[in-house]
Amino acid sequence: MLKYNLFLFIFLNHFFLSAQITTESVDGELIKSKQLFLANNVKHTQTSTNDYINIYQKYISGIRGQQCPMYPSCSNFGLKTFSEKSFAEAFVLTSDRLLRCGHEPNKYDLTIRPNGFKFIDYPAYQNAPIELYYTKNTYSFSYSDKNRDDSTLLFIKKLLNNHYYREALLEIMRVEYNYPAFNIELFTNKIICYKALGEYENALFDYETKCPLQYKNYSELAFQIALIQFKLKNFDQALQKNQTALDLCNDEYCKSKILLLKGVLYANKYEWEKSMQTYETLSVLEPYKKLADINLKLAESGTRIKFKNPRFASLISIIPGAGYAYAGHKQTAISAFLVNGLLAYATYTSLKNKNYGMGLLTGVFNLSFYIGNIYGASKSAKRYNEQKRKSIIDKLEFNSNL
C-alpha cells in the first residue's frame, strides 16, 4: 500500500508542476511555463520524481518489514523508467510492475544478490544483463592430447582439474612468456580457464589475435570457442564453430559432446526439428543412446507448446485482470481487478459528490493502472511463452552438462 501511495504522490507532484502557467523568456521569446516544462525541463521532473522515490527508499521502505522480491526493486524500477522514458510511459510501466510485484515467482528468472535471491524483471524495453541470471555451478576440466606432457603442463592440468582456474591461467601465462613457441594443447587449456572464469571476451580476443591461423580450426579449440559463443548467446556463431569441430572430430566421445551442444543450440533458436535431428544422430552412438532419446523427447515437446496470444491477452484486458489470468498470472489478475475496481469506484463517488478535483486525480490514476493492465497482459503472455520454451531448454542444458 505504501508503494501505491508514493506513486499517487509522484503523480500529484507532476500534475501540479505542469499545471502552473506563467510566462518566461526563452531565446528572447515569451512562452508559457507549461510549454517550457514539457519541452525543455524534463530533467527537472525526473529529478523531483527521483527525489520522492529516494525519500521512500531512505525513510519508508525500511519500516515495511520486508524487501521487494523483484530485481530491480519496484522503487528502483520506477527510478529507471522515469529517468529513461516519458512521464506517461514510465507511469504505465510502473503501474504494471506494481500490479505484478511478488506474484507468480515461477514466471521469472532468478538472480543472486547480496540480500538473497530475487526475481529478474527489467522494463520490457530493455533486456537484463546476461551476468544477472543465476546459473548452476559448472566445472571445467583440462584438455589432453595424445602426446606425453612435461611436468609443467601436468601441474597446469592438475590446477585446472582441481578448479584453481585463476592459478592455472597465471601459470599458463608464465609458460607462454618463458617459452614463446605456440603450443596448441597449452593454448586450448588457456581458453578453458578463461571460460571457467567467465572471461569470455578475453578468450575470444586471444583466439583471434594470438592463435595462428593453422590452429584456429583445431577440433577441441573450435568446440571450446563454440561453448563460449553459446555462453554469450551468440548462437549462430556457436553453431558455425561447433560444426567445424564436428567435421574435424574422429572419436565417439568428441562427437557426443559436440552433438549435445549442437542440439541445445538449435533449441535456443527454437528450431526444434533440427534439434531433434541432432539427437537422432547422437542416438547412433551406442553409449549415448539413452541420453539422446531423453533429449529427443524434450526437443519434440518444444513442437507441441501451446502458446498464449499477446494480442488476445490485451483485448480481454478490457475487463481488468482478465488478460493476466489468461497468461497464467492469476494473483496479478486479482490485484489488477481490485486496484482498478477501487480506483474506478473512488472516481465515481468523487464525481457524484461533485469533488471534481479528486475525481480527476483518481480517474487519471485509474487510467494509468488500466492501461498498465492492458500493456502488462500482453507482456505476460509473451513471458509465458518464453518460460515454456526456457523450461525445455534448461532441461536440455542440464542433461548435456553445459
Architecture overview:
- By secondary structure, the protein is mainly alpha-helical.
- The chain contains 18 helices and five strands.
- Helix 15 (310-316) runs antiparallel to helix 18.
- The longest helix has 44 residues, at 356-399.
- The chain is elongated, with a radius of gyration of 28 Å.
Care to give the gist of this entry?
Helices cover 67% and strands 5% of the residues. It is mostly helical and 402 residues long.
Q: Number of domains in the coordinates?
A: 3
**Fraction of residues in H or I helices:** 55-70%
Query: Which stretches are poorly predicted, pLDDT < 50 over at least 5 residues?
Result: 9-46
Stated plainly, the CATH topology of the largest domain is called Serine Threonine Protein Phosphatase 5, Tetratricopeptide repeat
CA-CA gap between termini? 43 Å
Order of helices and strands: HEEHHEHHEEHHHHHHHHHHHHH
CATH architecture of the largest domain: Alpha Horseshoe
- Rg: 28 Å
Q: Numbering strands along the chain, what is their spatial order in the largest sheet?
A: 3-5-4
CATH class of the largest domain: Mainly Alpha
Task: Report the oligomer.
Answer: single chain
Strand content: under 5%
Q: CATH homologous superfamily of the largest domain - what is it?
A: Tetratricopeptide repeat domain
DSSP strand tally: 5
**What would you call the structural class?**
mainly alpha
Number of helices: 18
